[in-house]
Amino acid sequence: MRTDKYTSEAICKCMGLPSFEADPACCNVPEAIRLLLMPSFHPEVCLTFVEGKVSVVCARFQIWRQFEPRPSLTDRAEGTIPAATFAQLRSSMVPVTRPGAVPGIVIDGMPSDLLHFQQGSVVLWTGGNPGAKGDFSAFVTLALVSAWEHISSSYCRNALAEAAEYVGKRLPREQEPQRKPTVETMVLGLPEDREQLLDALRKHHDG
């Protein structure tokens, strides 16, 4: 995929989220933390934390390898988190780069984009390429472990375990149930016509 099209907004829409920075799940609550992980060799993962809840969306196949952004199959899970866990995540958010989207593409790493919302507004937008050390890596590790501990989906837990390896953290792998067969549909035509049809399909699916 062209690097100018591989944006946090495009990735989240590919994974079926309304938006990266304008998602009602983050904007319609008092406070939220969203972390988008883009591993170099594994599918993308989006973690969303609000007080009392964590939501995980994992692409089944790497969006980066697509020719252009398009809807992708995902695995999803939600779980309940203690207030103390959310408070720990909040206090551990230490920005290590200037605010703004993560620049460029990093080979053999995991570019990450972090948003912190308060009362529907973005109060922090930062990111980086976490490794095994550093404050931002510690935050990413905490987010991955917190999500892994409080969801039950084997597919999502294994995706989190793959992402955790990029920050030097080992999480147990689980046996995955056999998936049901899926059928993918290709939509041809002009970009505006395709987008209109895909929006209608998304609304029908969500309804």
TrEMBL record:
Query: Which superkingdom is the protein from?
Result: Bacteria
Kindly provide the name given to this protein in its UniProt entry.
Uncharacterized protein
The organism of origin for this protein: Ideonella paludis
